[in-house]
Amino acid sequence: MLGQELSRVVTSNDNYNVLQPAHNELDLTKIDALEAYISAHKPEFIINCAALINVDKIEEDPLPAFQLNALVPGHLASICAHLKIKGVIIQMSTSYVFGHRNTPFTEEDSACPINMYGKSKALGETLLSSYANKGNLKYYIIRTSWLYSRFRDTFVDETAKKLLSKITVNATVDQYGNPTNAEHLASFIISELIEKDHPQNIIHAINKTPESGVNRYEWALAIAEALGVSSDLVIAAKAENIFKTPRPRAILQKSQKCNMPDWRESTNQYIHLKYGQ
Ligand SMILES: NC(=O)c1ccc[n+]([C@@H]2O[C@H](COP(=O)([O-])OP(=O)(O)OC[C@H]3O[C@@H](n4cnc5c(N)ncnc54)[C@H](OP(=O)(O)O)[C@@H]3O)[C@@H](O)[C@H]2O)c1
Fold first, then answer.
1. Contact (Cβ atoms closer than 8 angstroms) between residue 154 and residue 180
2. What's the distance, Cα to Cα, between the start and end of the chain in Å?
């Protein structure tokens, strides 16, 4: 989803020669193939958006996620260092590298994941930074949260479709995050990290949200309002009654250099564009 948004932003710009191997063209967990690909193309920037993200599936069977989410970022840096490729590596990460807290997590906070998905992503960050530092490579770790995009149905689309069909939506009141439009994130990555230099390695890139974050119930109400349908269809629920695997109550504190629009305005805009309301 984010990969497709990035691809849309960069392919419309003639300054870039973009390679975008799909999973069936390049399985990143096949390390020899990955090395051969990097060696052949010598990229100036590598943006790794590939991940396994199904939290419940990963909790039951974590190995594939550790192979892709944890080992691949380390291999990317190790391969670039070994091949003496001075490309910049941009690794996508998540608020799920953190655990429960009522106040926002900053870029300086240490990872403290509570589920296997978060653990796999946190280890990916550690391996990437460790091999990149050893190889003197430039890298960025972009943590984001609750993405939505026209390229894949997410909470926003599932909620919108149910509300438009007059089906009730159970939305959690005790799960907080930072709803983020993947299109805005893609533009931020290109304009601030590819076209400019950024002083930090770890960047929290999200739409602007209140310091206390946004819960799914508030988000569903905002979707109902944008659609112009009754908010009575939105039912407040508890996370423990909806999710099999615990999700962290982790809110990110936005990077100072990140000027992505407000979460409500962005949700509104998305609904209007996609559902014509
Ligand atoms: N979605 C969110 O709400 C969210 C929130 C915070 C952070 N993030 C992070 O943002 C990044 C992008 O997430 P997303 O939502 O765009 O994910 P996504 O829609 O699930 O896309 C992941 C991509 O990875 C590919 N992939 C899976 N296994 C692969 C392999 N072995 N080799 C090569 N490609 C492989 C998938 O291809 P196939 O589908 O063909 O297998 C898919 O195109 C991830 O790092 C994620 O952790 C996402």
1. no
2. 23
Q: How many angstroms from the chain centroid is the CA of residue 24?
A: 22
Residue for token digits 């039951």?
60
Report CA(50)–ligand 1 centroid distance (Å).
Answer: 4
What pTM, to 2 d.p., does this model score? Answer: 0.97
Region of 111 (left: φ > 0; alpha: ψ -120 to 50; beta: rest) is beta
**H-assigned helices in the chain:** 2-11, 31-41, 55-60, 63-65, 72-82, 116-134, 155-164, 182-188, 216-227, 263-275
Q: Are 12 and 158 in contact, with CB atoms under 8 Å apart?
A: no
Say how far apart CA 266 and CA 39 lie, in whole Å.
39
Tell me phi and psi for residue 171, to 5 degrees: -130, 135
Class of residue 201 by CB neighbours under 10 A (exposed 0-12, middle 13-18, buried 19+): middle
CB 255 within 8 A of CB 107: yes
Q: Which atom of ligand 1 is nearest to the CA of 48?
A: 45
Q: Which tens digits make up the pLDDT trace of 21-79?
A: 999 999 999 999 999 999 999 999 999 999 999 999 999 999 999 999 999 999 999 99
Q: What distance in angstroms lies between residue 154's CA and the mean position of ligand 1's atoms?
A: 13
Burial environment of residue 99 by CB neighbours within 10 A (0 to 12, 13 to 18, 19 or more): middle
For ligand 1, atom 2: residue with the closest CA:
147
Structural domains for the chain? 2-153+178-212+249-263 (3.40.50.720)
Ligand 1 center–CA 230 separation, angstroms: 34
Q: Strand, coil or helix: what is 208?
A: strand
